[in-house]
Design brief:
heterodimer; A: 230 residues; alpha/beta; Rossmann fold; six-stranded mixed beta sheet; three-stranded antiparallel beta sheet; 9 helices; 9 strands; 28% strand; globular; disordered N terminus; B: 156 residues; mainly beta; 0% helix; 46% strand; disordered C terminus
Chain lengths: 230, 156
């Protein structure tokens, strides 16, 4: 176990739960008011994301995470425009109550969700910070959301996504991502949630097949960062 | 266990501040020349170009808000334009676009919309003129005053 893994386990715990059918049927569990825990680390994907911004100003970036002071200040200093759209919260509002993932097949709820999020003109965004939110979408909803993200990005625009790599975990930590610099990010734990599915490298390549480029960055904290370029 | 009733948050209302109470509903245009606290329901538009607008924790506002400073603790559906500072406090729920000179976002605030910073051009200081005669000491006692332009960013 590396020093970083030890540090991570000390902060976030390394408890793995066995996968069972009963657990798989449970609705999403969100720990109530989890203790605010955080870890700051280097992010190669973030570095790659900002490399494309070099020498430019006034770009429009969509952050699908929770609004926070750090990201706001960072983009202000770069002279870019930031838009927040709390994607996971919108998911919870539209599909919460009962079986979270079964609700994601309900056409009325899907319509309500689609009216709330990713409502942008085609080719209108220069970048999307998706963070870890795609992990909580059922396969059918996921395809539609990624297709919409592809449409609203400019040609050459990038998306940064994060996926948990530990397929044995029934619940995975959900984080708020705070940008500290062009290559450092602070992860603040928010809740434990059950993902819709496990994403392998192969399944991610398939998911992002319409994008021109897909790059993977493995981190030491059981996360796979992915940069895709339209 | 305490038998005291739970204390509800009451926003501090300094003198010279108008307040819309939590059982009040207003539909229409509000123009204010003093600071304004909205802890009730407002639908329409709210403007206080040279003052501060505070949406209290009970405030439910569906309106575009234009002011020098804007503080949000409750719910706002609409755009904000502030020549000074915007504060999005814990528990606030805001759906709309924000234009600001300065912004602070507290942990636990829910914001959905775009952020655009207003770049304030700093005016160069006028050159010191030696032509202006000094006022007699009797007219101007030993006291220094600082002045800021109306609607300026002195409170930032």
């Amino acid at each position: 176990m590396t020093v970083m893994e030890k540090g991570w386990n000390r902060l976030f715990g390394s408890k793995k739960k066995p996968l069972s059918d009963a657990a798989a049927m449970e609705p999403v569990s969100i720990s109530e008011k989890p203790e605010l825990r955080e870890l700051c680390r280097q992010s190669s994907a973030l570095e790659q994301f900002f490399q494309a911004f070099h020498g430019q100003a006034g770009l429009m970036v969509l952050d699908l995470g929770v609004s926070n002071q750090e990201n706001t200040d960072f983009f202000n200093e770069l002279g870019h425009r930031l838009r927040y759209d709390n994607f996971v919260r919108s998911l919870d509002e539209s599909f919460g109550g009962g079986d979270y993932y079964a609700n994601q097949d309900d056409e009325d709820r899907i319509e309500e969700f689609q009216a709330k999020v990713l409502n942008f003109d085609d080719d209108s965004l220069d970048g999307i910070l998706v963070w870890d939110s795609l992990q909580y979408l059922s396969p059918a909803l996921l395809e539609g959301a990624v297709s919409q993200m592809h449409s609203i990005l400019h040609k050459g625009g990038q998306m940064l996504t994060v996926f948990h790599t530990d397929e044995k975990r029934v619940e995975i930590p959900s984080y708020s991502y705070r940008i500290q610099s062009h290559n450092r990010v602070k992860l603040v734990s928010r809740a434990q949630r059950r993902p819709a599915q496990y994403f392998s490298t192969r399944s991610l390549e398939k998911l992002f097949r319409n994008f021109d480029q897909v790059k993977f960055f493995l981190t030491q904290d059981s996360l796979r960062e992915v940069i895709v370029r339209k | 266990m305490s038998t005291l009733p739970a204390r509800s948050f009451e926003p501090e209302v300094p003198r010279g501040t108008a307040t819309i109470g939590k059982s009040v509903l207003i539909k229409g245009q509000i123009l204010s020349k003093e600071d304004l606290v909205i802890d009730g329901n407002v639908e329409g538009s709210v403007e206080a170009q040279e003052n501060r607008i505070t949406i209290g924790p009970n405030g439910r506002v569906v309106a575009n808000v234009k002011a020098r400073d804007v503080v949000v603790l409750g719910q706002l559906k609409g755009n904000i334009e502030a020549s000074g500072r915007v504060e999005i406090r814990k528990g606030a729920n805001l759906i709309g676009d924000i234009r600001y000179a300065k912004i602070s976002i507290e942990e636990g605030a829910d914001l959905r919309g775009s952020l655009e910073m207003i770049r304030v051009d700093v005016k160069p200081e006028p050159p010191k003129s030696t032509d202006v005669p000094a006022k007699p000491a009797a007219e101007k006692p030993a006291q220094q005053t600082l002045s800021a332009p109306a609607g300026g960013t002195g409170s930032k």
